[in-house]
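Quick question: what would this complex look like in 3D?
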Amino acid sequence: MKLQVHTSLLRAWRRLVFRWRRAQRDRELAEEIEFHRALKQTENRRAGLAPEAAGELSRVQMGNVTMAAEECRDMWSFLRLERLLQDIRYAARVFRRAPGFTAIAVLSLAVGIGGNAAMFTLVNTLLVRPLPYRQPDRLIRITGIYPRAAVPFFQQRTRTMDVAAVSPGAEYNLTGQGEATRIFGSAASANLFRVLGAAVAAGRSFEPGEDSPGRDSVVILSNSLWRTKFGGDPSVIGRAIALNGVPRRIVGIMPPAFAYPSAQVQAWVPMRLDPSNFLEFWAGEFVPLVARLGDGRTLAEARLEIPPLIGEFRKTFPYPMARDWNRDSTAIPLQRDLTGDIRGKLIILLCSVGLVLLIACANVASLLLSRATTRRKEIALRVALGARRLRIVRQLLTESILLALAGGGLGLFAGMGALSIFKSLLPSSTPGLAQAAIDWPVAAAVAGLALATGLAFGIAPALSASQVDLAQAIRTGSQRSTAAFWTHLRGGLIGGEVALTVVLVVSAGLLIKSLYTLSDVRPGFLPDRILTVRISPNSSFCTQRPACIALYERLLEGARGVPGVAEAVVADTVPLDAEQPDLAVDVEGHLKSVDHPAPMLWSGAISPGYIRMMHIPLLAGRDLAEADGAKAAAVLLISASTAKHFWPGENPIGKHIKSAGEQQWRTVVGVVGDVRQYSLSKALPDWIQGAIYMPYTQAVREDGQIPAAMTLLAKARAIDEGVVREIRKLAQDQNPNVPIGQVQPLEEVVTGSIANFRATIRVFIAFAAAAMLLAAIGIYGLVSYWVTQRTYEIGLRAAIGATRSRIVSMILAQGLRVAAYGIGAGVLAALAATRFLASLLYGVGAADPLTFAAVTGLVLLIAASATAVPAWRASRIDPIKSLRVD
Amino acid sequence: MGRPEAAEVLPGTLDLLILRTLVPGPMHGYGIAQRLRQVSGDVLQVGESSLYPALQRLLLNGWVKAEWGASENNRRARYYTLTAAGRKQLAAERAEFARVISAIEKVLNMA
């Protein structure tokens, strides 16, 4: 073996040397052969022939010297390589002569391959590539969420894991470093970074015990925060800043790729574990638990251990917990947890983009098949000149692979564009999303994909073309007796293409209908001409209720004085702004028990006038009034569905509700219409049973405090730049230490809440449009090919009296038959496939008959138009000409 | 081409025959053809149209090397010499040939 490699290397080297001195070699060979002939001539002379006859005979004896010389030359050249180059040159020439065909083929492949390159990248980065931590396969998530008290409990009791906790994150005011800003921070148990196996880029990680009270005044920055807010200054380690007014020392900076629990998080503070702080320890934010499996422990062992641990922990709660609390909790790999929400979406997109590639392949194969037919004469000529079948097949395969590679190259560029579009469809907080870029492995995969598609769609046309009946093809330039197999194959390809198109168009149709239903949803309020701006003082600022109330009174007064502003109110949440103000409450007449714990309500703190300004209908009782001040009797409004949930068939006015942590009841004074608070498709999250509105001056949060961060809503007579500027200035002037958000029209907040969905739909529409275009081209090509093949027959029919309309309808029927088979198969496939879309749909069933009918009609229409042109052409066939030529 | 009564060289054996012919010493193309004919008693006729491509093939594989020298009648001629690799190849091909021939004989001589 080694010897063979050695020999072939030597051979290649000698060939190189030969190439270099080709002329000399040729001369030498000629001289050598001439020498040989001269000796023969002498020999013949000796045998007694005349000089001329001797020369003549010697030449005859030498045989075909030219061919021998040719053979020698071939032997010395890189024959395979040169043939390949020759094939490529020839293919390039063929493509130049058929620019339309080439453009369609390359572009459709570029679309298919580009989309796939982008999706490969995303799937590879997010689902396949292991997390960037030490031994990532040992990391798990314990499902469910837990109070802080669970962290030490689990850490002490588990025998299979090393448990850590990290909060999903919340907004913090960052002061002490330039202008006050709002950042997103996450509270992490001190061992989090050690459990993940993630090292800091500078400084140090949290030390053990830094999650105990008194030692927790430290913070670790993300790379992005360090760069944007601290100018990338390495000396910030040790510097003091304030988060929500609490001083903290910067101890470390994370590397850019670290994005846990999400890419949104800009800073990590220790999660304080203080059993004496009842509210924070037992009732504050519930957090997810992550863990690393102990040495030699398995996921299965951890799963066995978790339910009994949770059962024990439930009994330690200082207040009754539902019996089925976290009953279904188990351990899942951390990677699955991180990609859980987007996994389905990614897979749907990957499948769709795969379908587009399949359609493109079928189309190009069909195009090549028809070209192979029109090129019969050329191919027959080459066969007649001595080309072997293998050689022809190779030439045609070279062409198709070249097409595919051109498509692949272009596709890489298309993929870069597509990647940024796909990225915008996924939540930007997805860990690792920002790092996703087309890299060498993906480029290699794309090249492989291009080669494979080139072979796949090239092999059938190449084989069909090489089966050419020489004599007939050269004589007529076309084949009357069609090779039935290849024609059927083409019909099958196009039918399949139509079926795949139907699947994509149905999906797009269902999504469009969802969007239409969604944008038609009445959100329960009128966002017209309302400007919003978020003002977020530290919660410590609002421990003195009067100070906080005074701040907002001043703000409201100022806003009402702005020219062009008709009304102004404040509210702690605005519908669809992604805030989730939930509150555990006691409801009069509803006793809490282990099986029925405190209900959760969506709790709004509003200033009087909010209900009227938002055009939320008042259904019963009265609206909140200025008189419902801090010292007046506590009142609230409830939504219509809340009234129905808690007091069905009763008058809710005068009933009582209170926060779970307080003593004094609040009286229901009015019932207002339901509002889509959470999203346009869902009024409220599943775990929330209703919505209430309290006057801001009386409002209370879970911790007994008044909400600190509020949104100012100002109804303008018309939204213009002047009003926006004035409102922003007004908000900023209140207090330099209070961060101010963007001034945003409420209508933008509403449309922004479905921007993600819109983008998804746009991509699907693009897929569906590409598929329809490709299918139209495919059908057009197929029918044109039939017409070309059957010119003689059609001419004959015309000659014996078939009318034009008869011929048109004959061709139309044939084209539509293929389309109909395709549509039938497509509808069945779509019925099976759209179930997977269900999570993306709103207000429309996955098998919505209207959508299916509309899509069937649309695809049929496209098929008919694509068939019409060649059918019309068929009707113009001049019988005299076609019969004479063929 | 070869005369009708002459036997064609068995396919694949021409290289072997040329290599064997070159064992005694360097020879030019004409010499090789003459020698093959003489030794085989005019049975084996090597056509020039296959002799030269064969020589080129041997050159390419490094089994012979070629040098220009003066011929008997003082004309420039290309002389082919067996290389060490060529000797090894000859031995190998000879053994293989013998094996095949004996196998053929066994089949022909079967009862």
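Answer marked as accepted. Chain A has 27 helices and 22 strands.
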